């Protein structure tokens, strides 16, 4: 078991109607009487946003709306929101939506009282100043952003997508009502579920192989996703299915399923780069890269993948040829993603491996220089993963 420090200071409220607590909670945590809500301008979330604004105003809070969030949140737009927050004296941000909305709320909270440009913090050139309190109302099971201290931004000038996090960026509270996910489109539902699965694999297939308690929790989350994602797609208002997926997302990214393990971030690094270049939905990039990444790690992580085959997919181990059992588990993973409607090859994302493979592989640096967060992947390794993902 690896040494670790566990901290999760997010106050979690779960169940029907919990979003009605937003006003009282923002009144408790806001540093000024002004709260910035962070969401989308239009769409099915709009009635929820209007209700939440009513809850805030009922507590005597002034509301500043920022509703220009886009998937794969953009640095330039976030800078504009930060400037507005500074001018309006915002004392707290409240993300209403999925991971993109919550990430932008965190980034605005980071940048509002920052003297330097926010990208200087993201690039490691500066340290954060005071961070505003953040709240979250989740409407999509997936990233687990509601309990994590990280936020990912895309810099279109540098064509890069990176994350930054510090303890102060972790939401003070998160309101999780599974009913708010009933209207999530099928594609976003399956992409969110794949993100959950991949976050679990980050640690499950990391450097430590003997942390059975955490590994068993990880296996339980993966099996729950496999069981309940099809149910949520078949019946979008299935409260039980939506509840199970939502809690899986919280467990996957809240570090509960990685205690005592070293997280291997190579998988997400590759997927995030595809998002930066091609504006690919993160979960869709992961459904393409994850089976290829597993295949490439087969030799180094053989025993973990054999356990994965047995515990997650209930496969009998072929004693004479255990490698066939591992291959079958990876194949079932890919078939599961394809079966629910996710892409599983680069071409399905509109990416031409023959044309772009070399360029893509040279952009990734997953070396030992990053310490315990990576199993070293050279550009040649990444090229092979992309090649496997092209089939």
From TrEMBL:
<feature type="domain" description="Fe-containing alcohol dehydrogenase-like C-terminal">
    <location>
        <begin position="192"/>
        <end position="387"/>
    </location>
</feature>
<protein>
    <submittedName>
        <fullName>Iron-containing alcohol dehydrogenase</fullName>
    </submittedName>
</protein>
<dbReference type="GO" id="GO:0008106">
    <property type="term" value="F:alcohol dehydrogenase (NADP+) activity"/>
</dbReference>
<dbReference type="GO" id="GO:0046872">
    <property type="term" value="F:metal ion binding"/>
</dbReference>
<dbReference type="InterPro" id="IPR056798">
    <property type="entry name" value="ADH_Fe_C"/>
</dbReference>
<dbReference type="GO" id="GO:1990362">
    <property type="term" value="F:butanol dehydrogenase (NAD+) activity"/>
</dbReference>
<keyword id="KW-0560">Oxidoreductase</keyword>
<dbReference type="GO" id="GO:0005829">
    <property type="term" value="C:cytosol"/>
</dbReference>
<dbReference type="InterPro" id="IPR044731">
    <property type="entry name" value="BDH-like"/>
</dbReference>
<feature type="domain" description="Alcohol dehydrogenase iron-type/glycerol dehydrogenase GldA">
    <location>
        <begin position="10"/>
        <end position="178"/>
    </location>
</feature>
<dbReference type="InterPro" id="IPR001670">
    <property type="entry name" value="ADH_Fe/GldA"/>
</dbReference>
<dbReference type="Pfam" id="PF00465">
    <property type="entry name" value="Fe-ADH"/>
</dbReference>
<dbReference type="GO" id="GO:1990002">
    <property type="term" value="F:methylglyoxal reductase (NADPH) (acetol producing) activity"/>
</dbReference>
<dbReference type="Pfam" id="PF25137">
    <property type="entry name" value="ADH_Fe_C"/>
</dbReference>
């Amino acid at each position: 078991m690896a040494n670790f420090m566990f901290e999760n200071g997010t106050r979690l409220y779960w169940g029907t109607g919990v979003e009605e607590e937003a006003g009282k909670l923002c009144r408790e945590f806001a540093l000024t009487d002004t709260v910035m809500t962070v969401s989308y301008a239009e769409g099915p979330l709009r009635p929820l946003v209007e209700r939440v604004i009513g809850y805030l105003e009922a507590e005597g809070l002034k509301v500043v709306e920022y509703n220009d969030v886009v998937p794969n949140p953009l640095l330039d737009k976030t800078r504009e929101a930060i400037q507005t927050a500074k001018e309006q004296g915002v004392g707290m941000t409240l993300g209403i939506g999925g991971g993109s909305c919550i990430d932008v709320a965190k980034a605005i909270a980071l940048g509002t009282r920052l003297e330097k440009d926010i990208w200087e913090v993201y690039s490691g050139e500066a340290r954060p100043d005071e961070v505003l309190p953040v709240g979250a109302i989740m409407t999509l099971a997936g990233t687990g952003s509601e309990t994590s201290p990280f936020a990912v931004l895309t810099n279109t000038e540098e064509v890069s997508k990176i994350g930054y996090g510090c303890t102060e960026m972790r939401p003070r509270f998160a309101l999780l009502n599974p009913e708010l996910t009933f209207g999530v489109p099928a594609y976003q539902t399956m992409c969110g579920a794949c993100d959950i699965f991949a976050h679990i694999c980050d640690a499950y297939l990391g450097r430590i192989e003997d942390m059975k308690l955490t590994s068993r929790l990880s296996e339980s989350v993966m099996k729950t996703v496999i069981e309940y994602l099809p149910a949520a797609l078949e019946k979008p208002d299935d409260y039980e299915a939506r509840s199970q997926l939502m809690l899986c997302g919280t467990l996957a990214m809240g570090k509960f399923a990685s205690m005592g393990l070293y997280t291997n971030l190579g998988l997400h690094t590759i997927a995030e780069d595809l998002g930066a270049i091609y504006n690919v939905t993160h979960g869709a990039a992961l459904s393409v890269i994850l089976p290829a990444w597993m295949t490439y790690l087969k030799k180094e992580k053989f025993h973990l993948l054999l356990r994965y085959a047995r515990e997650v997919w209930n496969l009998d181990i072929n004693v004479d040829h255990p490698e066939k059992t591992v291959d079958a588990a990876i194949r079932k993973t890919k078939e599961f993603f394809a079966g629910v409607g996710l892409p599983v090859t680069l071409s399905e994302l509109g990416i031409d491996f023959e044309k772009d493979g070399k360029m893509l592989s040279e952009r990734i640096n997953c070396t030992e220089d990053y310490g315990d967060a990576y199993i070293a992947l050279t550009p040649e390794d990444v090229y092979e993963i992309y090649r496997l993902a092209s089939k």
